Amino acid sequence: MSTSKNSSALVEDHLPDLLPIMLSAEETPLRVPVERLLNNLATPIFIKNRDGYYVFVNDALCEALGMRPQDIVGHTPKALITDDKLDLILSQDRILFRDGGTQTIETPITLHDGSVMHVVFNKSAIFDDMGQVIGIVAVAYDVTARNLYRSELARKNEELTERIKELRCLYKITSLLRDTTTPIAEMLDSFLSVIPSAMLYPDDAQVRIVLGEQTRVSSSYDDAASRISATIKSDSGDVGRIDIAYANPHPEKFEGPFLKEECALLEEIAGKIGDRFQAEIDDHALAQSEARFRSTFEQAAVGICHLDANRRFLRANERLCRFWGYSDQELRQMAYDDLTFHEDVEEGRTLGAKLWSGALKHITLEKRYVRKDGQTVWGRVTASVVQHEDGTPRHFVAFVEDIDDARRVEDLHRITFDRAPIGICHISLDLRLLKCNPRFCKIHGLEPGTMDGKPLNEISPTIYQSADEEVARQLLAGEIDEYEGERYFVQTNGQTRWMRFTVTLVRHPDGSPNHFVCVVDDITDSKTSSEQVAELTGRLVRALRGTVEILSKTQELRDPYTAGHQNRVAKLAVAIARRLKLDTVQLQDIEMGAMIHDIGKLMVPSDLLNKPGRLTPEELALIKTHARLGADLVMESDISPTVVAIVRYHHERLDGTGYPDGLAGEAIPIEARIVAVSDVVEAITSHRPYRPGRGLDVAIDEIKAGSGTIYDTQVVDACLAVLESESPEAFLVS
Fold it and tell me: Whole domain around residue 54: which residue ranges?
């Protein structure tokens, strides 16, 4: 037996021997195995007897029809089939019963799920031993996929035929429109004959075209018939319409009897006609524009010239000829480099090559030219490349403005700025240093150019930054015309100097703000001699130290629970500062600042400071004001700005979560960061009205946990080193 035959084919080959058993009136031992065999087949099978009754249906057929065997066996087709296929089936059965043989029938059947299956039935007569037809057996084959493929192939072929017709039509229309020598109004009659060829029913298609004031109509066009339309548009709006109509009725498609693709084709044709119509408008406008350009070119108030690929003159207007002292005819014999100052030639060639290659779209620069009389003059040139329609370069166009007088004035201003005996600085509206002259840099101990673009606060002491912002606000608001003042500053070498300064606002011609100008003069020598400064400094330091101690003790009298707190914080802070190798001045400032860092609490009610138990949010907010109030109080004296900064910022935190200003990172002075860590360590280890001291270990855990987030890492490391190497009792409550 051939292995290429499947089980269905094998059974079909032996059906003549097996099927009489299924029609026997007697139960035979073979009937059950044969039924089992037929039910195991995936191919639907049924058997009818001589009287036309179904005597067997296999499981595959029942499953396909969604019926049980008992719903079919014992019935004739009349009980099961109600559509117009019944008569055909009965007629075919009679032929088989009469003549025997086989039949092949293809028909659709509706399955139990409502879907339709296309089936080929191979029907054969069943004979008894006497050669009489006793029944019919039918084997069904699903040919749905094959039929769908054939239908789809036929549909695709029809669609392909229609698309080819549409493409041919579009090609003919496009070819007509490419003829730029013929006005589009003269092409309309040709369109009438071409467009119908793309339709499904070309012989019945009639066309009407309206374009501007022109109308063309097929001879038998009927406006009342089924039709589709497409609007012809230009840049200015609707300029016409194309209508296609069928004189006779046809089956419904996408839009009436018209295909979706036909509607799209009509839109595309209308678009192409609209583009060509617009192109004619543009060509006319271009001709007018060129005439105006020629007039503008010659009468322009700025010099204009065209150059070829080698930068030789093609033409130059009268203004440019006067600027260089050559006639247009003379320039046409010259190259652009012939007029360029020799030091600028190479730069011009490089930029020209980049323009021509497309690496640059345009350039604007100030350069020197040599006139016919030998004089060197300055011009501002803006150049670009005019391209052909295909994007390739056509020629250079350059606009040259005479800026010789303005440039000489600018040079004079620059020399004055650079050589001025006083410091001058231009400052942006957001308080950044734009440009500083050499004297300004020297006064501040800076190298020229090193601060350009940097924030003003990098050279302005922290204590003055709020004042700088307020002065800027008043100038911008027009509340003052200028601001004069004196202040000290620290040069990069650590030397303290005094300066007198004036700040004004420079405005644009329209009155809008442009930038600030700050003029400064070093008045250190005139303010005091070095000996007086040294003596005064010593006296001030001693007086200030005494004042600080008095203020600290006054604070402790109001808050006995914190007695010695500021002194202990100062000792620990100075020890940390020494570890960080800060200079002597910083050590003095840290000691003084720490001694009075809580001075602002003098202005907080004492009962609130000594309140046992948890504070309310309002009470806590009131206590937090002590940092700002203390700084404001200390600022009234001549105390160091660093001390003021310590008082104000010792509660600021590295991540910006502190108070009063929410400073973060390097914006917090290092001195304040040191006092902040010292303050926390001392506070945790000291007794308070609302809790006992929590011990040094808790304080160390706190600053370690906050290192790098709320506390400066270097300061924390230095503090830990101090506490490990020196006796903590020297700084903290034992």
Answer: 7-142
